[in-house]
Each structure stands twice: as C-alpha cells, then as structure tokens.
C-alpha cells in the first residue's frame, strides 16, 4: 500500500508552536537567574559593611555603602579583615554551589533525604510557577506586538516611488532577457522530459542534471546581462548604483531559489520530476512557492534595505513585518482554497483500493483494510489537515508580531530547514518503498548463471530498506528537535556516549553488511558450481559436499556475526563463550548418539562413501539415497518406502555405484543335459541380447565370463556366468539376460528343472488301481514371434530381495 505523504504544514505547526513556547519559557528562567545573582552579590557587601562598621572605621549611621567601603580600603588593617571575611564567606558558598539547598521541615531534618511527597510538591510548584510566568510573558509580548508597525509613517511609499525610476531600466532588461530565454528553453525542457521517460536510470540522471544546469545558466545570463548593461548604458559609464546592485543580487538569489524549486517539481517536463505529483499539482505548487519566494526575497533583499537607507531602521522593520504578514495571509488563502483538493489527494493516497498491491485482491479484504485503525486515523488527519496548517500560520503570525526581526528570521530559516529535510526524506523513502515493492532486478546473464541470487537479494534487501526507512524517519525527527532547540545533537555526538553510540551503530552496520556479502558470495559460488548449464555436470559427491559446506559455513557465519555484534554494542562475550562451552559439553554428554552421528557422517563424507543418488545397502535396507545430511542418510527402496537411518547405527555400507558392477547369473539345468551345450546356449543368448538391445549393450563394459558348474543341487546342475556393467545397470541387465536365456533354452530343448513329486494313488485288494486318462498334446499352429518393447533401464533401478543371494551379494 502506498505510503501516506504527511502534509508539511502539520509538522510546521508543531515545530513552530514548540519553538515559541520554548522561547517564552526561557524568558522567566533568565529573569529568575538574574535576580538570584543580584541577591547573592548583595550579601557580601552588606557583610563587609557590617564588618567595617564593627571595626569602627565607619563615619556614622547615615554613611553610604560606597563611602564605608572606601574607608575600609584605605585602612590596611580593615582591608585585611575584609579580605579574611570575604574568604570565609566565599569558600563555603563555592563548596555548596553544586548541591541545591532545599529547605527541610523539622521532621525531615533528621532524615537522610527529602521525602517523595515533598519532591513531588516541589516539582509541581516549580512547573506551575514557570507556566504562569510563561503565560504572563507571552501575553505581555502579544500586547506589545503592535509596536512592529510603529515605525511605519506612510513615507515609505514615496521612498519606493522615488526609487522606481532608477531601477526600472535594470528591472526591464533582466526580466525581458529572462522571460525570452525561458520561452526558448521551454520546448527543450519538454523534449528532455519525454526522453527521460524512455531511457534508463543513468541517462535520466544526466538529463535531470543537464536541465537544471540549463535553467541556472539562463538566470546567470540574465543577471550578467543586467549588470553589463547597467554599468555600460545606465547612469555614468563604468559605475553602478547601490540600488541597482541590490536589485541584481536579489534577482540572482531569488531566481536561483526558484531554480531549486523547479528542479523538484519540474512543471514543464514530468519525466524530470522528482516529487511524485500530477502535472496540475506541480504547476500550482510552483506558482505558489514562486510568489512567496518573490515577495520575501525581493522584499527583504531590495525593499527593506532601500527603506532603511532612505527612511530609518524602524521603518525597515515595519516593512519587513508587513511583508511577512502578507505572505502569511497568502498562505491562509492557499490553505482555504486547496483544502478539499488536498483532502481528496490524501484520502486517495491512503485508500487500499487504489494501491498497487490491491490489483486482484478480494474486495472484502480491501474493505477490511479500510476499517483498520491506521487507515481511519489517516483519513481523520486528512479531514483536518488544514487546521494544522492554520495553527502553524497563527503561530508564525504571533512570532512576527511579538518577536524581534532576528527571531522571526530564525523561525523562517528553521521552517525552511525542516521543510527541506521532509522533502529529502520523503523522496528517499519513496524510492525505498518503490524498490521494496518492485524488487531489485538482475541482468539475464547473471540470472542464468545464478538463478537463486535475485530471489535471495529480494528476500533480505526489502527488510534492510524497511529498517533504513525507519532510521530515516528517526533522523528527521531528531533533526527537527535539534533545529527547534529541544535537543543539542552536536553536543551529544561529541560526548563520550554519543561517540560510543555512533561508533557502535556504524560498526554493527558494517559487520552485518560484510557478513551478508560473504554469505551471498558463498551461496552464489555453490549455486554456480552446481549449475549443470555452465561448466561440467557436478558429481553426486560434489553436490553433497558443496551443500554441506554451504550449511556449515552459514551456521559458523551467523554465530561469528552474532558474537561480533554483541561485542560492538558493549557486551562482554567472554562469559558467553565460556557458557557456550559448558553448554556444548553438557549437550555432548547428553546427546552422545547425535555426536556419534555427526562424527561418523563427517568421515563418511570425506571418504566419499555415500553420495546422493547412489544405491546402497545400509542397516539391512537397500535403496536409493535421496537425502544426505551430516548425521543421517535417507533411502527410498524399490517399494517406494522412505527410510531415515542415523549414522550411529551403521556398521557397514554397501555401495553398488562405485566404478563398475557385475550381474551374476546362476542357471540350473537338468542332470541329463550336456553342460557344454548349456554353456554355448548361454553365450549365444548373451550375443543375441547385445545385438537386439543397443541400449543394454551401451551399458555393458565386458564380455560374458564363464565360471562353470557352481553347484550340484537336488534337482539341477547350477551354472554360473558374470557380466561386467556400468554401476546401477546390473539388475536390469540381469533380468534382460534371464529372459533371453529362457528363449534360447526353449528353442534348443534344454530343460530348466524344477522340483518334482511322485504321486501314489494306492491299490485295490486285487492289485488294480484307479486308471488315469492321458491325452496327447494338441497340435497348434505356431504364431510368429512378436517382440514386446521393454522399459528403458534407469540409473536409479534398485534391487529387490530376490536379486541376490549371499554369494551374489558378495560378488556385487
């Protein structure tokens, strides 16, 4: 939701009211301190007079204090006694100046200090007296405010009328040149603004600087031309009058101030406008501020000096006050005329329905946001913003009417400083808000190499920018309080506490920035190394180790950053480190299994025993490694079951994905079959498989190996062969080879035996038995053999419980 721009008028009302109240509050305090000084200084004189009189050096009861003091100073003995008495009087007084003297009641004289009730009573009494004195002083100053116009006699108008002929030529020359040059450059400003809307940030900054330099050059050319023509053509050749010089200097300062105003508002070129307002608002604000600057600038820099020179200083002060009142009345006119427009703009700025984030949002959510306390408060402030502005104008009017010119000037300068601070803070805050909303985009080539970098930056940077906006708001508040005199920022910064605080803030900021940069560089490096589109494809071991490195370094970096930050803010991290060591020792004893898991996992990783994607047997479970941490390994078996096995339970790890693998085939034939015929059939089945299955052949890295007769079973002669394959392909190749063996054995009539049983049906008493009806096999027409496509074997094909016996597992 867009940030509400607080009207500067409300801030100025509070600021100026605070300034006036502080000023009037300090006046009775100064008077009180002066009276105290007078009372204290009179006591020693009386004492000295009494001393002198006691010594018999006085002239009589009606002797004046000065004559008595003169007689004492003439007499050496009396003078020495006076000095001794003064030393006795000043020494106890100097010793007790640092501690306030509080009158105590008899009941409290025996206590160690003043009671709480009496302290509260004294504080309230002091506050009440100071408040009454401030109000009285304020009312007295207000009653005498009409005196600012007492110097006006009506002759000031004739003075100004007499000064116009000597200034008319210079004014006409400078104004004519300035207007002509501005008209010629108006089209150029518009073109520069349109171009700035369609270019990047760097060209826009260049166009902005160029337009303002051009605007300032126009002012300088008009001013220089006015000076040159005045010296050469007006009056005596080579000379210029003081009034012409006053006007030209006022023209330069006033028009340069307007250049600064136009640089922010840019009424002609919206593309060069810094302040986010509409074209109509920019033109109106520029017109209003230009009128105010012209009245105050030319009035204070030209009219007031002329009146001071031709009439008197009192008349000049009256003219200055009159100009200030005219400007204040003009402000009242602006506030009353634009009251509804500003109220409507403030409400639109704080309306959730017109915010950029409200696109596609549920209307119910927008209505709920409208009913929130913050939005209702902002809308209420928008309804009464003009009252704050009018209060500020009233306060400034009181300052103009009751205070000297220097106080009024200081109030105006303070208002200008606060206004500039608010504008700059609003611009920076708006830029930060737009950056937070839109994010920080990175070039496409960087996003291709580091796909996660932009997301990481846009996750942390908005939080940092939000803190910067908060710090900016706090800085503006402190600057405002410093300008109006409520606090002394410079003295506080120069103190030991201020230096320590600012040093700690800067150090913490640098530590956090460097830590974030190191973490970002490390994660970006890991992302780049794991990106298969750039460089080589990372192996499973590289993936595992780099991931573990990133996690470990991140944890270490967070801990070190926290320790450095705590150390910079003044906390002693020695006891914290000792406590952490003791806590770590206690955790180590209490979590021995976890420690064992971690230590075993570290050695397994460094020895490259397991990687993500490997097919292993660990803890009696066979499956594909899906996740590998520093303390456990996670497997998924052929049935899809997910297993998490801590390293502390691991005694042996069998990895089927190292270098190469073997598929061992134990094929049984009947005792009546010829072993050599079966051997040839197995080799022929292998060659047929290689010829018909190119994908299978690509994963075979050796010929069929003949081991011979493996065993003589109860019903079969077991023959063993072995095929060398790529790791992870052995199980699929073994299944494919078994299929081809079955086909070849069937074609050649080689029997694959199976367990047989003898059935006895019993006999009758006459020796007969139940007959069986046996029919011969039906003659069937064989159909052409069709080949069923097989599933492509994947690298993560894992064995099940029937793929290997004890011997086969050992060979694998």
What's the topology here?
Elements: H1 8-54, H2 65-74, H3 76-95, H4 116-143, H5 155-196, H6 201-233, H7 242-265, H8 279-310, H9 313-337, H10 339-349, H11 363-370, H12 373-383, H13 385-402, H14 405-438, H15 444-449, H16 453-483, H17 489-494, H18 496-530, H19 540-568, H20 573-590, H21 592-606, E1 615-618, E2 621-628, E3 632-636, E4 642-646, E5 653-655, E6 661-669, H22 675-692, H23 694-698, E7 705-712, E8 717-725, H24 730-747, H25 806-811
Antiparallel strand pairs: 1-2, 1-5, 2-3, 3-4, 6-8, 7-8
Helix pairs in contact: 1-2, 1-3, 1-4, 1-13, 1-14, 5-6, 5-7, 5-8, 6-7, 7-8, 8-9, 9-13, 10-12, 14-16, 18-19, 22-24
Summary of the model, kept short:
This protein has 25 helices and 8 strands. With 812 residues, it is an alpha+beta fold.
Describe the protein.
This protein has 812 residues and is α+β, with helices and mostly antiparallel strands. It is built from 25 helices and 8 strands. A hairpin with a 4-residue loop joins strand 7 (705-712) and strand 8. Helix 1 (8-54) crosses helix 4, helix 6 (201-233) runs antiparallel to helix 7 (242-265) and helix 10 runs antiparallel to helix 12 (373-383). The longest helix is centred in the N-terminal third of the chain and has 47 residues, at 8-54. The two termini are 64 Å apart. Mean pLDDT is 74; it is low at 1-63, 92-112 and 804-812.
Which properties best describe this structure?
6% strand; 3-stranded antiparallel sheet; 65% helix; disordered C terminus; alpha+beta; 25 helices; disordered N terminus; 812 residues; 8 strands; elongated
């Amino acid at each position: 939701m867009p940030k509400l721009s607080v009207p500067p008028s409300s801030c100025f009302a509070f600021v100026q009211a605070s300034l006036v109240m502080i000023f009037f509050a300090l006046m009775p305090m100064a008077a009180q301190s002066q009276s105290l000084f007078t009372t204290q200084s009179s006591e020693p004189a009386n004492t000295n007079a009494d001393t002198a009189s006691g010594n018999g050096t006085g002239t009589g009861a009606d002797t004046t204090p000065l004559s008595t003091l003169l007689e004492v100073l003439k007499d050496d003995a009396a003078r020495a006694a006076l000095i001794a008495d003064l030393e006795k009087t000043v020494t106890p007084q100097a010793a007790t100046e640092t501690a306030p003297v509080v009158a105590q009641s008899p009941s409290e004289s025996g206590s160690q200090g003043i009671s709480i009730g009496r302290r509260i009573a004294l504080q309230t009494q002091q506050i009440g007296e100071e408040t009454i004195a401030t109000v009285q002083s304020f009312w007295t100053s207000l009653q005498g405010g009409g005196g600012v116009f007492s110097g006006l006699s009506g002759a000031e108008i004739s003075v100004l009328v007499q000064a116009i002929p000597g200034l008319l030529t210079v004014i006409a020359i400078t104004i004519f040149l300035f207007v002509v040059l501005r008209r010629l450059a108006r089209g150029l400003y518009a073109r520069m603004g349109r171009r700035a809307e369609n270019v990047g940030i760097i060209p826009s900054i260049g166009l902005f600087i160029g337009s303002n330099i051009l605007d300032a050059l126009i002012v300088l050319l008009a001013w220089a031309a006015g000076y040159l023509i005045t010296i050469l053509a007006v009056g005596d050749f080579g000379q210029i009058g003081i009034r012409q010089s006053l006007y030209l200097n006022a023209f330069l300062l006033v028009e340069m101030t307007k250049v600064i105003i136009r640089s922010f508002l840019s009424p002609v070129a919206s593309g060069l406008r810094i302040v986010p307002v509409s074209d109509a608002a920019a033109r109106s604000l520029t017109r209003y501020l230009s009128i105010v600057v012209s009245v105050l600038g030319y009035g204070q820099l030209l009219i007031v000096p002329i009146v001071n020179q031709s009439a008197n200083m009192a008349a000049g002060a009256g003219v200055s006050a009159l100009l200030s009142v005219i400007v204040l009345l003009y402000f009242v006119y602006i506030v009353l005329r634009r009251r509804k427009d500003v109220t409507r703009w403030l409400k639109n700025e704080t309306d959730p329905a017109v915010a950029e984030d409200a696109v596609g949002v549920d209307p119910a959510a927008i209505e709920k946001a409208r009913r929130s306390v913050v939005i209702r408060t902002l809308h209420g402030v928008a309804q009464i913003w003009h009252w704050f502005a009018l209060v500020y104008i009233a306060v400034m009017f009181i300052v103009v009417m009751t205070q000297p010119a220097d106080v009024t000037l200081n109030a105006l300068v303070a208002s200008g400083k606060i206004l500039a601070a608010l504008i700059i803070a609003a611009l920076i805050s708006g830029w930060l808000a737009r950056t937070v909303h839109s994010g920080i985009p990175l070039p496409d080539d960087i996003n291709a190499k580091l796909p996660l970098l932009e997301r990481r930056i846009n996750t942390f940077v908005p939080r940092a920018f939000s803190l910067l906006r908060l710090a900016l708001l706090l800085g503006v508040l402190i600057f405002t309080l410093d300008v109006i005199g409520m606090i002394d920022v410079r003295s506080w910064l120069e103190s030991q506490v201020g230096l320590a605080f600012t040093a700690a803030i800067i150090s913490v900021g640098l530590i956090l920035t460097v830590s974030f940069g190191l973490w970002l560089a490390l994660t970006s490096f890991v992302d780049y190394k794991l990106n298969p589109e750039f460089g080589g494809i990372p192996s499973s071991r590289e993936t595992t180790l780099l991931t573990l490195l990133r996690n470990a370094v991140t944890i270490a970096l967070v801990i070190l950053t926290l320790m450095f930050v705590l150390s910079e803010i003044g906390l002693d991290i020695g006891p914290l480190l000792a406590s952490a060591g003791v806590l770590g020792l206690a955790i180590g004893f209490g979590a021995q299994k976890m420690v064992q898991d971690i230590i075993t996992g570290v050695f397994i990783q460094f020895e490259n025993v397991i990687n993500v994607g490997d097919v292993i047997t660990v803890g009696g479970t066979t499956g594909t490694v899906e996740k590998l941490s520093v303390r456990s390994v996670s497997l998924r078996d052929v049935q899809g079951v997910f297993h998490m096995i801590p390293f502390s339970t691991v005694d042996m790890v069998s990895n089927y994905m190292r270098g190469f693998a073997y598929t061992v085939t134990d094929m049984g034939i009947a005792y009546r079959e010829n072993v050599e015929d079966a051997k040839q059939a197995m080799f022929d089945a292998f060659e047929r498989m290689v010829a018909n299955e190119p994908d299978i052949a690509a994963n075979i890295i050796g010929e069929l190996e003949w081991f011979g007769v493996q065993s003589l079973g109860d019903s079969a002669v077991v023959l063993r062969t072995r095929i060398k394959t790529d790791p992870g392909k052995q199980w699929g190749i073994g299944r494919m080879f078994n299929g081809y063996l079955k086909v070849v054995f069937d074609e050649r009539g080689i029997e694959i035996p199976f367990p047989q049983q003898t059935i006895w049906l019993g006999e009758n008493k006459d020796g007969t038995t139940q007959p069986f009806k046996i029919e011969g096999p039906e003659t069937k027409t064989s159909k052409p053999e069709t080949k069923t496509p097989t599933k492509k074997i994947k690298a993560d094909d894992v064995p099940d419980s029937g793929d290997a016996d004890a011997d086969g597992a050992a060979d694998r």
